[in-house]
Amino acid sequence: MTKGRIFLLSILVLFFYNCEEDNTSPLDVVYSSIEDLHAPQQGGQGQPIAGEFAKFDFETGLSTQSPTEWDIAFRGTAIIVNGGSSLGTTDEPERTGDAGVYIYDGLMSEMSVVDTSLFNQDSSEGYAINTGSGNGWYTYAGPPTYLISPTPGKILVFRTRDGKFAKVEILSYYLGSPENPDAFADQSRYYTFNYVYQPNEGVTEFN
Question: Which residues pair with residue 84 across a beta bridge?
Answer without folding.
Answer: 122
